[in-house]
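DM from R.C. (forwarded with permission)

"hey, sorry to bug you on a friday — could you get me a structure for this? deadline for the figure draft is monday and I only need the backbone to look sensible"
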Amino acid sequence: MHSSSPSGSTSQYGEAVHVPLIKSPSLRVPKLVQVPPDIHPLPDSVTAYFVYPYTLEEHIITLENKRRSTLATNDAQRLAVLQRHEHKKEQQRLELERIKRLQQEEQERIRKEQLRKVAPGFDPSVGALVPKKVGAAASTDASTSSLMLPPPPPPAAPQRDVMADLVDQLAALDAAHS
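My reply, with the result:
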């Protein structure tokens, strides 16, 4: 659709070429960058620029050694604090165990005392109360013979023997307390 116009423009927007446009103030075209004439161009070989004098190495090594020694000191201090804390916890645990053991022993002692009030000479750690014959209690004393059961039968009946021993033992305890 090319049309020829009296102004000689051949594009379809030829007529709009002479119409003034309003530009937005927010739009701007940047200026072209001009390279200064005194810039130093790079040579063909850049190997001369890669000469390293190694002047920073000693400084870096010194700083790194200081940093490592500081870290080691801090780690040692933390470890010492943790060990003290663990030692303290262990001491507290041992103290708690000791206190619990003392409390249990005291409860056991109180229980034994209560059992001895009911049955003198009874010791729950020994188990069942087994009477023993005591030579002094076996004598024919009037006070002890009244408390004793008849003498035990021959070894064929061991239950009566145990009972007789019990009576003898109780009589001996009664005589010792009187």
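R.C.: lifesaver. The chain has three helices and no strands.
me: no worries. Residues 137 and 172 are 6 Å apart (CA to CA).
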